[in-house]
Amino acid sequence: MTEPLQNITDLTLRELQQALSALGEPSFRATQIHQWLFSHRAASFDEMTILSLALRKKLAESFSIHQLRAVDHQECLEEGCENPTQKILLELQDGIRVESVLIASENRMTACVSSQIGCPLQCPFCATGRMGFRRNLTAGEITGQIYALNELVAARVPGKALTNIVFMGMGEPLLNTDNVIEAIETLTTRNYRFCLSQKRITISTVGVIPEIQRLGKSGMKTKLAVSLHSADQEKRESLMPIAARQYPLKELGKALGEYSSSTGMPVTIVYLLLRGINDSLDDARLLARFAKTFLCKINLIDYNSINNIKFKPVYSAARELFQQYLMNSGLHVTVRKSYGTTINAACGQLATVGMPNPQ
Ligand code: SF4
User: Fold this and answer.
1) Residues 156-176: tens digit of each pLDDT
2) Residues 193, 228: contact at Cβ < 8 Å?
């Protein structure tokens, strides 16, 4: 059986330059091809009319082109929902499927994208974590999700496009940093279709300290969100065992402080409120003490129930007291509305369906 050709959209720009150089072509050709793939979403080399026929033939002999397209699509049917959250299922070249979410609000169209298939960190409250880990997504697969969601936006409202991107889908983006950065470069570089400002992109992490330090020094201007969920080391370890043990609160606080001072941007602390677990005033006090040491804002989110998982959403009265305590402590606090709960597209609910069995 012949091996399938390598999908050219899986190559980074540097790898594409190396491949073109091996074919005796100058490096600017790689940039042209990259733009055809990621700006024009070319589905065949024949579309790349800027290239000679001979080069298109050579490329077609060495590579295939697999552009991600939605194979399924669901819309949130909550009553009175004017801008329904939408979830799409995309099939990757190896048959694995990945979910991405479009969150529409009055003046924003936000793509919530995945960076891994499954997640190695296995937080017990998260549907993705319960899937286990299959593999990292390539930069092309990350970018492909965003283009596919953008097509959904344009199909619905001609002329409209995505305005924001959040890496809050499946997986931990800072365990796949190279590909996440490569995708962000494609999405924010001039001459490509999106050319989004980096400030419209948020990377959400459990707190992978070395990678936070790397981002802080990189000069990138993307926003950073950190899932904290408890400012008590022991409790955090019970909620996110792998991440909390590997990246303890003390060192995490220091890394976030350095990050906010070197970038001048506040870090968003994401705090998932779980009934009877991390929603007391003592928990709020510990959170306030942690958050006061660096430039940040706090985003409280309600838990979205997942089948067979024991956690429960906070009571609204407890949430209000928790929020008030933090505000009285001088912190900037918002409560994030949950989108897409009816289609399992809300935070922590993403898990691929139809995945082939592991080899
Ligand atoms: S919450 Fe995030 S880090 Fe934890 S298992 Fe889920 S995807 Fe992974």
Assistant:
1) 888 888 999 999 999 999 999
2) no
